[in-house]
């Protein structure tokens, strides 16, 4: 069930069967000379929508929220097309998404993330949200979970087999393959130079551009292909459903309020 | 040119020809028993992407940013599936989008809006952004513009002809028609009761739900059809291109810095 | 009843008869070569105090709060004497005024506004305040209303008769006339050049000063006179009392809390 | 020169002769059974306007900004009619006033304060404003000064002679006398009980109302009279002009930027 | 009892006997050519720990929280080693300390302050915290108190006897003596020039450094000695225990909630 | 060199030899029935001060800032004595520490962290700080680094040898051993039940206390001893010096400003 093409009575009915919602979250930022700017939000969206389709076919619908498409990408601002939130803004926005969904009765809010640079801020936001309850000694009526798509069960292994060298950590062949599989008319044939990009620390945008002239970190995106992308999507969709089901079924201990 | 399926070098090239970017912006909120929750962000996205296609065919490409899909919908929070930002969060996020795009050299940033409840906050944000420069006596290197799709030239008239009664102001047949045209498998056949919804002031969510039990305001969404939606999209896309072109060509007076 | 020359027990007694308070709100900003810097807060103050006097004479007292005299005027900062709040500050301050008055039991809080540049931010603030309740599923115990004095019943028509040309939109003859009527020793005899000021979009302060060299937009303030000002005050005071009475009497639907 | 009944070209001319502006600042809060709610902002306004008149007569005009009429009065919120800003809001608003005035070239910004509860927050705000420059190693182009009217030279002594007992610290006969002198038709004849109010610490509003049932602290406001008020105004006006002149003439050391 | 070398069950037990906690709070900032950068947080820490030891010996334990070591020192940022919070940050942090301790049941939270520049911001923060309750008409379950160590009973007199001239107001011989007594291997033998430092107003860091070239204000720190420091510590520790005991025993009036 | 027992001229001299400063950062929170509340800030302080002593003996002084002793511990607020900052407050405070130190010319700011719950927020803060420069296209004049003491070279291995079972992740025998080594009179002899604590996810404080009744996660703190603590301190001090030296020596690429 895709939230944004549903009506409110349909969501209300869904809530009588399940209290879980999955939010694809990513970033819109440069992905080297051949990667799409939307890569990091397209990947979780593609996987989540594939999972939704699978679940519907299996008669156990899951609910996918709209994609949270702009994240924390300050270090990529030296490259045209990147759009970033400051961490403090990102936190406020995630809070509002969560408090809106919690208002309707969702008790398990699952973020499927597509951008490494988002992780710290999302986790800090979870603490900021829980803290509202912790200072007041109240029970929080929902649980939050963050999973990166590349950490879904089986994916890391599949990537290491597919891309034994040149996977790198930004503009990776795996993420680019996923977008190519979903948008086959967007494949770029440029061969970057050097073929495998350099590595280094991540700081402000000017430093980043000086260290990583075409934007990639450690990757050889020419290894990406539509076929590999489809394999990753298929595997990730299955793992996502399992992971979300585990999260939905996780028991909560009896809590005392002080 | 769709920003999120472009690469950064492509955007850099685009910037040597044009300094204008169009951002579809809306809201994810209840639209009555037959309207999609995404209606208000889908409409400007649909129109902007139609315009982009038209412009590409005409050899005068325009650039469409990712859709800003969550806006200010606090009054709809009594209905499942609504996701809202607080105005203060919304402002911070718009600021970050603008400052990111301005960083790359965009000088005309055009928001195509799909939600009446967004207008005040977007305009307040424009002032907040301009104020950064005004307090320092600096020239702002970009101009901001907000247009609601229903205010595009010719659209209001077309709506009044299509829907002489029962247009209303929320979950209107015009916006629902646009989504039906773009998502023909999402047409809902429910007939709401009463056929034309009541009117009244907009306050907090509890008050809203008490006044507007199924979420609609003044509208009869059964008047929507795929055909009417397509007509609206076609007309709006043409008007959007003209309006954006006017904005791009608008001369800026010589400014003194104090 | 003027709040700031009342005592707290007097306000407590007023509250047993009425739950409505009227707040004049405006801005302190340049009004061209002949308009007073205080014009936009003096106008609503003058009208509200005239209405208060009228109501007292009629034995149906209304309560006028102190004037909120600094608003959102970032675009006027290129002209000496302008004092502006950033929209975000303006929002926080309006929230605190409202939460203070609501604390005492006021249920209808009516802002009589004198500055077009305030509208978006005030409306965004209303949403910010209502949102406190909407996210929690609570009923908001008060209603907020914004009326610009020039939108009071009968005023626009009176202005178009008085000033068929040269009314414009900033430093207008109508607002200047009102201040001249209230402060007859402050009439300025300067004739601006050109007599009718130019029009254009409003952006940051440097852009504003470049477009509107003496500060006016589209207006010929030499049309203002003490007599016209008094007519406007008299008419607006009557309309304000009617509008506030309607607001006070407006029924609230039974609300469910979720 | 009263800023809000001046035009911007007049302020621009004033700036060629003086860089100093005086801002009356206070609070709108309960002042016991006989004191006006506006007492704390009316007092500095009355004194500043008296000083302005005197200065104009002496041919050495001073400039008085609009009155900052709502301050930090959270502890008085248990009494009807009190309007308070949170300290954080108060800080943001003072910052915006200062940055607006500094934008026009004012170099000495003098706050004449009428409310003890404002002092800490105003001083914290001065540090917040200076800190903008201190972190960047920049020279701040203006100096800020806070003076309470009761600390103006000669006033404390005059009060101790006029009110040897029963002056107290809130709803004092001196401040009430000043408002009675300026608003002689607003004298209240109520005799509070007990005649001299209790003393104690100041905390939240519920605690305050429990300790100080009618709002006063340590004062006997029946000692106030129009005559005493006028004496205080006359003396304070003279002292204010001297204090502001000293501040205007204070030399600034040569500053190095790092 | 020193909180940070206690376990949580020990603090829980302490709370069954006492609801009071003492927080040493200061600043880390230049203290002239001979004073330690930590002077302003070391002094209250030294005194509080001495008091704790004394109380333990007397069988009436008091609880000392960790030291809040960074305060509001923007004006000292022109001197290496100074670390400052902006007032707004300082306020947020104090709020969080207080709300954490209040969460555990502490009802009397006593700040022993070592830095004059902190006073305004700490007091503003107390108001910000109380305001949370005052706007809602709630009773605040705790009381806050700020005492500067030099205002403890008997200390000012002792200082005036020890240092009849050259005490000054920053990098004073009294505070330096206290640190020397606690850190006898950190005595500096430099003789500053001039021996007694100049006086003047405090503004931004650039202005401060121009007025006070070596950082001191009005002081002659060569008057400090280990012996005098020890005397001050001993006296202050005794006074602190008395002052905290009075605060703990202070009755709270019955409060009505509105 | 310990910053807080140094004078500002000494720090100025240090800066002519080195631009690196090390900040111990941790948290004050429950550490089970036998761990000290200060454990997480004491550990990095103990290690950093041991390293400082070693470096001084080797004639290559390093500079240690005061300890940042309160961090992000919202989940521990159900246990008495825990003091936590909200993530948003923590971020603001870290920003101010960094901007203060950067103001003096420090170019490498190294945080030695003692609390796992701090990591996400510290990293998010680094991005917030870098973003100031990235949006403006400016070069950031300093680099930031976060290292947890347990990630220092050799420590994890030493822990796994010392504590093959029962190390766990909160109130671990390694961190408790370090505090016991430094504060030998603070060893607690309580044997917790069960000996090895349970594991689980970390959410709000009420949930935490329900899952982890005595506060520990997965650990058996009875394995801690003074001897093991000393070994860990010695090894960590050496590794810290190496890691900080590497960071100080790290070359920065030539950066272009856009
Ligand atoms: Ni990526
Ligand atoms: Ni809509
Ligand atoms: Ni106006
Ligand atoms: Ni007063
Ligand atoms: Ni000091
Ligand atoms: Ni720990």
SSE blueprint and pairings:
Six copies of one chain form a homohexamer.
Chain A: H1 8-17, E1 20-25, H2 39-57, H3 87-103, E2 108-113, H4 119-136, E3 143-148, H5 155-162, H6 173-182, H7 205-211, H8 226-249
Parallel strand pairs in A: 1-2, 2-3
One nickel (II) ion binds at residues 31, 39-40, 115, 170, 175 of chain E.
Structural account:
The structure is a homohexamer of 258-residue chains. Chain A has one domain: Rossmann fold. The first copy, chain A, contains 8 helices and 3 strands; from the N terminus they run H-E-H-H-E-H-E-H-H-H-H. Chain A has helices spanning 8-17, 39-57, 87-103, 119-136, 155-162, 173-182, 205-211, 226-249; strands at 20-25, 108-113, 143-148. A 3-stranded parallel sheet of chain A has the order 1-2-3, sandwiched between helices. The longest helix of chain A is centred in the C-terminal third of the chain and has 24 residues, at 226-249. Chain A starts with 7 loop residues before the first helix and ends in a 9-residue tail after the last helix. The interface between A and B is large, with 54 and 54 residues.
């Amino acid at each position: 069930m895709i939230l944004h093409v549903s009506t409110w009575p349909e969501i209300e009915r869904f809530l009588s069967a399940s209290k879980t919602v999955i939010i694809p979250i990513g970033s819109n930022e440069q992905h080297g000379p051949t990667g799409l700017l939307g890569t990091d939000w397209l990947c979780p969206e593609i996987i989540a929508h594939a999972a939704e389709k699978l679940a519907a076919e299996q008669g156990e619908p899951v609910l996918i929220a709209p994609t949270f498409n702009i994240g924390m990408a300050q270090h990529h601002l030296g490259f045209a097309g990147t759009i970033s939130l400051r961490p403090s803004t990102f936190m406020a926005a995630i809070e509002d998404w969560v408090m809106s969904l919690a208002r309707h009765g969702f008790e398990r809010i699952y973020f499927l993330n597509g951008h490494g640079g988002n992780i710290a801020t999302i986790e800090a936001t979870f603490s900021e949200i829980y803290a509202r309850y912790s200072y007041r000694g109240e029970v929080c009526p929902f649980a939050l979970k963050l999973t990166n798509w590349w950490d879904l069960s089986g994916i890391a292994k599949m990537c290491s087999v597919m891309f034994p060298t040149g996977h790198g950590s930004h503009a990776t062949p795996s993420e680019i393959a996923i977008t190519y599989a979903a948008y086959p008319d967007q494949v770029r044939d440029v061969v970057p130079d050097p073929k495998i990009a350099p590595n280094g620390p991540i700081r402000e945008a000017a430093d980043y551009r000086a260290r990583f002239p075409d934007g990639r970190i450690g990757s050889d995106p020419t290894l990406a292909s539509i076929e590999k992308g489809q394999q990753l999507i298929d595997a990730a969709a299955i793992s996502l459903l399992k992971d979300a089901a585990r999260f939905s079924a996780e028991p909560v201990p009896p809590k005392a309020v002080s």
